[in-house]
Each structure stands twice: as structure tokens, then as C-alpha cells.
Amino acid sequence: MNLFFQQIINGLTLGSIYGLVALGLTLVYGILHIPNFAHGALYMVGAFMSYFFMTDLGMHYWIAMAGSAAVVAVLAILCERLVFHPLRNSPPIHDKIAAIGILLFLEAVVQMFWGSDFRRLSSPFTGIMNFDGLIIPEQRLLIIVGAFALVIALQLFLRKTMTGATIIAMAQSREGAFLVGIDANRVAMMTFAISGVLAAVAASLYAPINLVYPAMGHLVIMKAFVIIILGGMGSIPGAIAGGMIIGFAEAFGGFYISTAYKDIIAFGLLVLILSVRPQGLFAKGAH
Amino acid sequence: MLQLENVDVCYGSFKALTDISMTVDTGELVVLLGANGAGKTTLFNAISGLVKPAGGDIRFEDKHLNGMKPSAVVSSGVVQCAEGRKLFPQMSVQQNLMMGAYVHRRDREGNKKRLNEVLELFPILEDKANQPAGSLSGGQQQMVAIGRAMMSRPRLLMLDEPSLGLAPLVVRQMFETIRQINSLGTTVLLAEQNAFAALKIADRAYVMENGRLVMEGDREAMLGNEEVRKAYIGA
């Protein structure tokens, strides 16, 4: 029975990380209809910035995470201002190509500074908690609690503040948002900044139990796309639920079937769910 | 209050508006008549900053609106209630109305007072306050759209075909409310195809055809004009 609960913890850990990354992706898609492939690179830069702040500057884990979030938020805003904003009236394919360009560019820059070696981010939360035989590493607990806290904070921001509501308004009716005087540029920059923060925090939380390397964003962004398609493009609850579904499927599939197949499970689920519900679990507009 | 001088709008090589010159004075209710495709919505969008004019000048009080961002146009007091309503469908009625107060978001007391005034204009919205705006009937959605525009505290309210797709009884109530909004001090520019109902509440009117203003006059002159009666009133 403990092994079963162990998989629940593993599923929650993976689901929390996937959910955070997918949330940022779905927010940007909901507002600007940009499938931001560069989001995986922002995730990777987030991990490297935390690594840099901790290893090279000797900062504490929390301060390094906050610094990383700030740097990636600024980087995300720069991507919006310098690349996506000038392309706003271009055919949609231009956004996609530009996003892939940013992904490759950021990977090359990181590789230039840190090389392509695998690195490990140390965390002060290395202990293991034992709840009556159920073993939970502290870092995994931190990931779950941190991700839930961040999702709740984001929901409160979006639903209880006028500034947050502008993001939802823009996603529901772009023209309606213009008519009430919402500044589209401000909302776009804010949305990119939030997506950057989510990616950096997810990477900084997950890096201590994984490895840090320039290509680390590839599989995560692929899965984040699976999640937002599965949950419904642009849907916030869809991103959270989708993240959990993929996280649990990987944890249980990896344990009960084979870890060799755990990455295929996400894509198998995508095919299965889309053949039953082509619009995704939460249709667009479930904001 | 609002002055347009020789305004042109182009979509690529297609000229949607040609040499539009018109005025709206403070306190007036001016109607813009025209068939589908005449250019009424394009004109409203040009004034609102949603479309950039290719030439000419748009002035509101002492400000030039040309090239201004839509958010700046709303802040200056020119608010459009667009054709098709453009509500936030999953937000509640109350949230939609409060989003209308976005440019005045720091004045919480003022917004509360304004909300009460809007609910006095449309009492039915009070009962529907927590319902998603997208689930309301067409008439009620139009009330939310006008209410949301009123929450922006417009000095000039531009209404683009508010009667479109509504039942005759609801249309009558809608025009009565528009007249009431105007009598309470808001200047109104109303684009309509329902010429008879619109002219009944108007001070003046312009007629648009193929992107040009082809006629203007006060209510009596328009109601008495044979061409207008034939083309728009059907009598």
C-alpha cells in the first residue's frame, strides 16, 4: 500500500512541475494565441540562473530562486517586446518560427557560458520525511506545496484584482478589452512576465532532484504542450488538471508498467483523450 | 465636442472612409444612419483608436485622437459600445460592469456610485449580477454592454447598432434608455439602421453611403426628407 502512496507523491511532484510550466504556456496562448515554444528555454534559463546564483554567487536557495524568477521575467518581457510584439500583425507561422528561434538562441547562449555538461543544483532541503513508512523527500514536498501555493496565488491575482482580471478579460474578448481601455501592451508584458516567473520557479524547484543542462527544456515543453492541448488551449483549470493527469500517468505507468515507457504514456493519453474529446478536457473559455 | 475633418480610412488598397467631416456638440444626441457596409463601424473604430486613419483629423475637445491608443481614447472620455456587444462571456454581469470602470480603477467610491446609477438604468441587471454575461438573452447582453460603457464615465458615448437582433419591444425600451442617458448629460453618437426609432430621439443626423457622408440635418428635416424616408424608413 505504501508503494501505491509513494506513486501518488511522485505523481503529485511531476504534476506540480508540469502544471506550473503549462500554466505559463496556456496564459500566453490564451492572450496572444502564440504557441510559445521558447517557454522550454525560459524553464532551462531559470534552472541555470538559480544554479549561477547559488554556485557562483553563494546565495541561499530561496534568494537564488527569487533572483532567477526576476531574471526570467525580464527575459520573457524582452522576448515579447523585441520579437512577438513586432510580429503581431504577421501571419501566425512567423510567431512559431520566431519562438523556435528564441529557443535555439537561448540554448546557444547558455551553452556558451556553461557548456553542455550536466550539472546538479544543490538544495538545503535534502532530508527525508517518514510518515509511518511513507517516505517523502523534503524537496518533493517543497515542490508540491510550492506549486499549490503559487497556483492559489495566481488564481487570487487573476480573480480578485483588477490588474489580474485584465488578463482574463483579454483572453475572453480582445476587442472588449480595448473598448474598456485595457492597454494590450501592458497585459501582454505582464502575461509574459508571469509565465517567465512560473517557468523559473518550476525549474528551480525541480532542478535539485533532476539535472541542469541546456536541453533540459525540450521534453518539459513537449509535455506542457500535450497538457494544454489535453486541458483545452488557453484554459487555466485545464493546465492544472492536465498537468496532474500526465504527472500521475507517468508515475503510475512508470512504476506498474515500465519507466522506459513513461514518456510515451503522456503522448498516448493525448491521443486517447483527444479522440474522445477533441476540444480538450476544458473547452477554451473555462478561465 | 467631437470634430472630424476630412478623415480617410483605408484597408490596404480599399478606401473604407472618404473625406468624413462631421461634428457632435456637447449634450447632443446625433444619429449616424446607413446601410450595412456604409462605414459606420469603421468610423467608430477610427474615433476609438481601433483603426488608424490614413488622413484627416479627429479632435475631441482639445485633444487630437489620431494615432492615440484605444486605452488613451477611453481615458479621455470617448467610449464605444460596439456592435456585437464584445462582452466578457464567462465573467459575471457584475464583473463585466466593473471592468468598464477599468480606467477609473483607483476611484472605488466613485465606481460604486456609478454602478448604482447603471443598475438604476437597467434594474434587471441587479438580479442577474452573478450570472455569466454570455448566458443572458440578447437584450440583456445589450444592457450589460451599454452599462459597461457607462461605467467608463463617457462624456461621449458611441453606440453601434444597439438594436441589432433585438425584439421590437426590447428595441423600444433600448431607445428610451438611450434617450434617458442623453438627458442625464452624456453626449451620444448613435449608429443605427432602425432610422425611424433613432430619429425620434435624435437632435441631428448624418447619412452615410459607401464610406461617405451624403446628407445631414436636424431631426425634423431628416424625418421629412423624401430620400431618407424611402431609403431608411420605408414610407
TrEMBL record, chain A:
<feature type="transmembrane region" description="Helical">
    <location>
        <begin position="141"/>
        <end position="158"/>
    </location>
</feature>
<keyword id="KW-0813">Transport</keyword>
<feature type="transmembrane region" description="Helical">
    <location>
        <begin position="187"/>
        <end position="213"/>
    </location>
</feature>
<comment type="similarity">
    <text>Belongs to the binding-protein-dependent transport system permease family. LivHM subfamily.</text>
</comment>
<dbReference type="GO" id="GO:0005886">
    <property type="term" value="C:plasma membrane"/>
</dbReference>
<feature type="transmembrane region" description="Helical">
    <location>
        <begin position="225"/>
        <end position="249"/>
    </location>
</feature>
<keyword id="KW-0029">Amino-acid transport</keyword>
<feature type="transmembrane region" description="Helical">
    <location>
        <begin position="255"/>
        <end position="274"/>
    </location>
</feature>
<dbReference type="Pfam" id="PF02653">
    <property type="entry name" value="BPD_transp_2"/>
</dbReference>
<dbReference type="GO" id="GO:0022857">
    <property type="term" value="F:transmembrane transporter activity"/>
</dbReference>
<feature type="transmembrane region" description="Helical">
    <location>
        <begin position="96"/>
        <end position="114"/>
    </location>
</feature>
<feature type="transmembrane region" description="Helical">
    <location>
        <begin position="12"/>
        <end position="31"/>
    </location>
</feature>
<protein>
    <submittedName>
        <fullName>Amino acid/amide ABC transporter membrane protein 1 (HAAT family)</fullName>
    </submittedName>
</protein>
<dbReference type="GO" id="GO:0006865">
    <property type="term" value="P:amino acid transport"/>
</dbReference>
<dbReference type="InterPro" id="IPR001851">
    <property type="entry name" value="ABC_transp_permease"/>
</dbReference>
<keyword id="KW-1133">Transmembrane helix</keyword>
<dbReference type="InterPro" id="IPR052157">
    <property type="entry name" value="BCAA_transport_permease"/>
</dbReference>
<feature type="transmembrane region" description="Helical">
    <location>
        <begin position="61"/>
        <end position="84"/>
    </location>
</feature>
<keyword id="KW-0472">Membrane</keyword>
<keyword id="KW-1003">Cell membrane</keyword>
<keyword id="KW-0812">Transmembrane</keyword>
TrEMBL record, chain B:
<dbReference type="GO" id="GO:0015807">
    <property type="term" value="P:L-amino acid transport"/>
</dbReference>
<dbReference type="Pfam" id="PF00005">
    <property type="entry name" value="ABC_tran"/>
</dbReference>
<dbReference type="InterPro" id="IPR003439">
    <property type="entry name" value="ABC_transporter-like_ATP-bd"/>
</dbReference>
<dbReference type="InterPro" id="IPR027417">
    <property type="entry name" value="P-loop_NTPase"/>
</dbReference>
<dbReference type="GO" id="GO:0015658">
    <property type="term" value="F:branched-chain amino acid transmembrane transporter activity"/>
</dbReference>
<keyword id="KW-0547">Nucleotide-binding</keyword>
<comment type="similarity">
    <text>Belongs to the ABC transporter superfamily.</text>
</comment>
<dbReference type="GO" id="GO:0005524">
    <property type="term" value="F:ATP binding"/>
</dbReference>
<keyword id="KW-0029">Amino-acid transport</keyword>
<dbReference type="GO" id="GO:0016887">
    <property type="term" value="F:ATP hydrolysis activity"/>
</dbReference>
<keyword id="KW-0813">Transport</keyword>
<dbReference type="InterPro" id="IPR003593">
    <property type="entry name" value="AAA+_ATPase"/>
</dbReference>
<dbReference type="InterPro" id="IPR017871">
    <property type="entry name" value="ABC_transporter-like_CS"/>
</dbReference>
<feature type="domain" description="ABC transporter">
    <location>
        <begin position="2"/>
        <end position="235"/>
    </location>
</feature>
<protein>
    <submittedName>
        <fullName>Amino acid/amide ABC transporter ATP-binding protein 2 (HAAT family)</fullName>
    </submittedName>
</protein>
<dbReference type="InterPro" id="IPR052156">
    <property type="entry name" value="BCAA_Transport_ATP-bd_LivF"/>
</dbReference>
<keyword id="KW-0067">ATP-binding</keyword>
